Amino acid sequence: MSSSTEARRGVLRLIAAALIVPPLAFVLVFFVVPLVYLLYGSFTPASPTSLFGSGFALTHYAAIVGDDFYRFVIERTLFVATIVVALALLLGYPTAMLMARLSARGRLVMLAVMMLPLMVSNVIRAYGWIAILGRRGLVNGTLLSAGAIEAPLPLLFGIEAVALGLLTILLPYMTVSIANTLASLDKVYREAAASLGAGPLRTFIHVTWPLSSPGVAAGMMITLFLMLSAYVTVSLLGGPRYKLLVSMVFDQVVAFQWPRAAAFAFVLLMIAMAGGLLIQLVLRPQRVGGRG
Amino acid sequence: MIASAEIDVSLAGVEKRYGHVVALPGLDLAVERGSFFALLGPSGCGKTTTLRVVAGFETVARGEVYIRGERVTQRPPHRRNFGMVFQQLALFPHLNVADNVAFGLRMRNVAGAAIRARAREALGLVKLAGLEARYPRELSGGQQQRVALARAIVFEPAVLLLDEPLAALDRNLRQEMQAELRQLQRRLGLTTIFVTHDQEEALTMADVVAVMNEGRIEQLGSPREVYERPRTRFVAGFLGANNFLTARVVGSIGGLLRVEAFGAVLRVAGRPRKDGETVTLALRPERIRLAPPGAGRFTARVTDIVFRGPDTHVRLERDLADFQVILQNSGLGAAPVHPDDMLDLDFAEESLVLLD
């Protein structure tokens, strides 16, 4: 290699590095710094006069671990997260397979149709579900007037309503993420599997599923993270008694318990990171990199 | 047509359409056991479609497909018992070399210990022993090629299908792989159908070459036959640069036709024609010698000379007809050639091929 091309590469690398600086600085100032500040705050005692008190306190984390109610909320959060992500995958994958088989144009149309509901605000959508599932809602009203039931069914304020509400928001993310991977997957892999004697089911298990793992992992992580931070849907459809971890953060904030809110926020962050790590470890999407 | 015992793959009246486009208008084909059968033709001639019909990746509108005498026309690919090397290779990126090779055995529910032994044996055949734990992305192009081959032959399929598997390799590696593939095929006696657009590859590797054009087989024969005795202008043109002579039939003598071109009367073998009919003759560039005026068949003017190392390509012109001549640079003191020289083309009459 001549020294002039070597020099040009060096310049290009320098330009590339320079281009990364602004976004990097942005993330540093507006994300990393506040996050570190929040982490610091979660280890301070509560103060009636300022955001965080002075001194060091493990009391918030101790309370979260020691309190039965808090622990129950954490367990419930994990439970709902598992259910929602699993359902999104179960419903999203077949839809994605269908979508991947369409033409590029057809895929775009289907994408637009799926994204349409997302253009409505979460608040309005949640009230929509209340109008459908409430005591005097569409479902109960119809069933009552048809004489199928004698008293309204308690459809709202439970895991069913919360999961349903979250799924309608999250399903498009899961589906699109998987569909993109499936659509870019060359059909020659399926043909190769068939040439080696694998029927449709074994081709799916041994080839299509593992090769789609990058899309599945991405979809599951997006779904998990959005689900863990969804507040409006959870509080409106779950009601005042059905609390998840986000609700705890909110409750502490409105009570001006900033350090405890910070501690809850960090527990939530840890759960999200652990969940993301678990998804990566199980699906190992990186093994698909560099197709042969 | 019922396939006999020696025929491993046969197609009978296979018709394939894509919408209104007829890809295969009714193809008959028989591949003998142990032979290396090349489907040769330009892109769009139907050679890949033919291979995919054998594999079952394409359904047929009409006709039957047989593998080892069994009718498999309606059978899905995974129940047809063939091995295939794809143009894109399609090694599974999430599986290492050993698991890629073992895939076909696993799908056939072979026992675990036997799988390992046979996979190792297949990797030995393609000279990749010791690379079992590598992933496809960690291999060179040639090594990936070998893995794809090992994966396709490890379960001893009835037929091996090769879809331009060497197209992605550079020239040297391709020639090396051609030789190895041929050796391996002979050693294992594996019936092989090979799709290629590269005439040299088809001629060097195959026992039987089928030259395809517009979904039909234009000519079928040994490499030497199709090269030296092309039946149609398409075959003659596709198998290397050929010179075409337009000639007029002027009579016949002793079973040979007498034809006239550029004032020279030539005798060629072929079915009888009427006097005065115009015919086309093919003549290989390497079969022509250049001679001083009056010493050869007819005279032409030199228009271009290209030195190529082992040989020199000389282009000549006569009455708007172009001729290409390849002279070996054997150092045997041939007279130097210059542009605008008037020279005679000289060749043996047996070198002329009368085309349909």
Question: What keywords describe this structure?
Answer:
heterodimer, A: 292 residues, mainly alpha, 13 helices, 75% helix, 0% strand, B: 356 residues, alpha+beta, five-stranded antiparallel sheet, 8 helices, 36% strand, elongated, disordered N terminus
Q: What is the mean predicted local confidence, pLDDT of chain B?
A: 89
| String of helices and strands of chain B | EEEHEEEHHHEHEHEEHHEEEEEEEEEE
Residue fraction in strands of chain B: 35-45%
Please identify the oligomeric state: heterodimer
The SSE string of chain A, one letter per element, is HHHHHHHHHHHHH
Query: Distance N terminus to C terminus of chain A?
Result: 28 Å
Rg of chain A, rounded, reads: 24 Å
CA-atom Rg of chain B in angstroms: 25 Å
Architecture overview:
The complex is a heterodimer of chains A (292) and B (356). By secondary structure, chain A is mostly helical. Helices cover 75% and strands 0% of the residues of chain A. Chain A has 13 helices and no strands. Chain A has helices spanning 3-41, 59-66, 68-100, 104-115, 122-133, 138-145, 159-184, 188-195, 200-211, 213-229, 232-238, 245-254, 258-283. In chain A, helix 3 runs parallel beside helix 7 and helix 12 (245-254) packs antiparallel against helix 13. Chain B is an alpha+beta fold. Chain B is built from eight helices and 20 strands. Chain B has helices spanning 47-55, 97-107, 112-125, 141-153, 171-188, 199-205, 223-228, 233-238, and strands at 7-18, 21-32, 36-40, 62-67, 70-71, 82-85, 159-163, 192-196, 208-213, 216-221, 243-253, 256-261, 264-268, 278-283, 289-291, 298-307, 311-318, 321-328, 342-346, 353-354. Chain B has a six-stranded mixed beta sheet with strand order 6-7-8-3-9-10, sandwiched between helices. Chain B has a five-stranded antiparallel beta sheet with strand order 13-12-11-14-20. Chain B has a five-stranded antiparallel beta sheet with strand order 15-19-16-17-18, with no helix packed on it. In chain B, strand 7 (159-163), helix 5 (171-188) and strand 8 form a beta-alpha-beta unit. Residues 1-5 of chain B have low confidence and may be disordered. Chains A and B meet through helix 8 and helix 9 of A and strand 6, helix 2 and helix 4 of B.
